[in-house]
Design brief:
232 residues; two-stranded parallel ribbon; alpha/beta; 22% strand; six-stranded parallel sheet
Length: 232
């Protein structure tokens, strides 16, 4: 197990609210007086700003809520322009995502902050290179996992498979968040009830469709109490 207090945020798919939940958790931790920071180790769909610095919407959101001026090499060591699976984006740019680089960055953040919230990329089993996945990253960090479930058709199967994969690696599924998707979902309450009976982990709340991705509003809609009591 690696040193440092941390949580790992994963999801049932890409684009289902992992970043908002990760930002909300960082906000809640900082509201408790903890020096918490967010980490997005790998992200695709980045761009270069006017100063030639690589930027990514998710990485920027986590950096903004962290309130600390930390080197991008630690908080987001791998940013790629092509909005593709990260290992494909890396290949297109002539790079290889090295697990050692990510884990060294996590160690450094753990020494600088009291708590690190690490957001995965895509779903739980997304490849990062030929023999290392986001699931392997979560296992190496050995932090409790928060699962974000995008409420849409098929999410029960995706959520249960993800929970099974998390536990198969000896990790703790600390809680899950139901996230209402923009297109809505028929019988949403029935789906949430089915997941609550089957996931075997506390539901931290349901995120409504928010007008903006505001971490404060998201944190207010969720109950991180059990997670925060063990943090720091």
């Amino acid at each position: 197990m690696m040193e440092g207090r941390a949580h790992f945020v994963t999801g049932t798919d890409t684009g289902i609210g992992k970043t908002l939940v990760a930002c909300a958790l960082v906000h809640a931790l900082r509201a408790r007086g903890l020096d918490a920071v967010g980490m997005k180790p790998v992200a695709s769909g980045a761009w270069r700003d006017s100063n030639g610095v690589m930027r990514n919407e998710d990485a920027d959101a986590l950096a903004a809520v962290s309130g600390s001026e930390l080197p991008q090499a630690l908080t987001s060591p791998y940013l790629f322009e092509a909005p593709l699976a990260p290992h494909v984006s890396a290949q297109l740019e002539g790079q290889t995502i090295a697990s050692a680089v990510i884990l060294d960055a996590f160690r450094s953040l753990s020494m600088r902050a009291q708590h690190v919230v690490v957001e995965g990329v895509g779903g739980f089993l997304v490849p990062l290179n030929d023999d290392f996945t986001t699931a392997d990253l979560a296992a190496a960090i050995a932090a409790p996992v928060v699962l974000v479930v995008g409420l849409k058709l098929g999410c029960i199967n995706h959520a249960l498979l993800t929970a099974e994969s998390i536990r198969a690696r000896g990790l703790c599924l600390a809680g899950w968040v139901a996230n209402a998707m923009p297109d809505g979902m028929l019988e949403q309450d029935a789906t949430i009830a089915a997941l609550s009976r089957r996931l075997g982990a506390p539901r931290l709340g349901t995120l409504p469709r928010l007008a903006s991705a505001d971490p404060r509003m998201a944190a207010a809609a969720l109950d991180f109490g059990a997670l925060l009591d063990g943090a720091g």
